[in-house]
Every structure is written in structure tokens, then in C-alpha cells.
Amino acid sequence: MYKVTPIYKSQNKPMSVAVLISGTGTNLLALYEEQKKLESMGEKNYGRIEVVFTNVPSCKGATTAKELGIPVVSLNSKLYFDIIKRPPDDNTAREFYDAAAIALIEEICIPDLVVLAGYRRRVGTLFLHRYRNRVLNIYPGDITKSYLIRGVEAAIQALRAGESAIKCTVFLQKENERFGPALVQSRPIDISGLKEEDIEKIREKVRKEGEWKILPFAVHHLIAKGRIGVDQDGNLYLDGNRIPREGIQLTEADSN
Ligand code: GRF
Prior knowledge:
eight-stranded mixed beta sheet; about 35% helix; alpha/beta; single chain; binds 5-O-phosphono-beta-D-ribofuranosylamine; four-stranded antiparallel beta sheet; 7 helices; Rossmann fold
């Protein structure tokens, strides 16, 4: 039997969260709204977003965060890689960029959990070592599907595979793996009758019916409560019981 270590040990105080974004930041907002709801209910164990980091300083999510009063730190990745004349996927430069990001984040707080919420950069080894087993990511599709390839949107791939419904997934980010172990999946989101040209509508549906539910659930109701553990092989546990490969399946009741 492997030793299971909690991702976060609940201490009767809010868990400190850093959120990394590159875009509209709607998942950040969903996380924040659940935080506020739990705070107002007098809850002790939940995630408190203490800092937002972005590689796209002009993104909408950064504006949202500032308006909410959350400290925002940024390092423009496009400028950074232009200046050092390296491609953005250069692995050595990635480590330097990530080190600078860590320094900026930790000027504000040492996070208990890092959430990649639409962060459009791959984090490298240094980053994943610094926050070992504490980096959460979200994917707008079902990471257990074998048809997934890089570079094509999850929903498009699902449509091409003939799926009539899709799930989205919160997972633990692992080194050298595209997806780590699945933590939570949404209920199936109906896409029957929709086509590739309806992609904008599908994106909306996936966020609303899926991502905005599973991400706050995973952060505030599972991890911040100390319910999720990990063993030395990276397998996840809920209250000491192994989580299946597909992750915890969110039910209607969980998301209310
Ligand atoms: C989400 O669909 C997420 O799964 C993907 O990027 C999108 C981010 O949306 N990685 P937002 O910035 O939270 O609105």
C-alpha cells in the first residue's frame, strides 16, 4: 500500500491559491465567486485567490482580477521571448521564464495551490518541482479519450469522433505529460445537432455547464478541505480511496 499524501492539509484556514491566466478569465471569476459565497457563509476551508499571474498583461482576465481587487503580476511572454531571441517553446528559456513568474508570484504569497485557468503556456520542470503535486489544470474535453491530438480544440475532435456529448476535466499537471491524472469531470454536455461552425456556442456551453462547476468544486470543496491525496506514482485519492482513471464524476447535487 502506497503512502498517500494530501495535496493540501486542511488547517481550518483558507488555502492560498495562485491562478495563472492568459485569456478571458471566466474560470477565474467562477472560482472567485464560489470563494466569496463560502466566505459569506462563514466557511473556514476554501481556497482564497491571493494572486493572479498572466503572461498576457492586456488580457481581459487581468482586468477582471484587478476590478475584483486581486493582486495581478505579469510578465509578457511574447515580449520576453522576442527580447531574448528564443522561440517560446525553447526549454531552457522556459525555465528562466517560469523562474521569473515564480519570483513575481511569491512576492505576493507562497501558494498552497496553483491553478492554470486558461493559461496558454506549458509550465516546465522547475515550476512543477516548486509546486510539486499542487498544480491543477483544466481541459475543455475528456482527457481519457484516445483520439485526442494536440493543436485541435477538444470539442472539434469530439464532433469529428461522432460524439453527441462531451465532458470537461480538471486534472493534476504532471511533468513531461500532456495531462496528469484526472481529478474531476463534468456531467456530459449535450452537443448533438451542433457542428464545427457552432464552435463558439459549444465553447460557451462547455464553460457554463462544465468548467465553471468542476473547477470551483475541485478547488474549494475537495482540495481546500484536505480531501484529495496523491501517492508516489501520482495516483489520486478522495478521502483515502483511489479515484478512478476518469476522475470523480460531478453530479447535479455536487454542483449546486
Ligand atoms: C477554458 O476553456 C479552458 O479549459 C481552456 O481555456 C479556456 C479558458 O477560458 N484551457 P477562460 O479564460 O477561463 O474564460
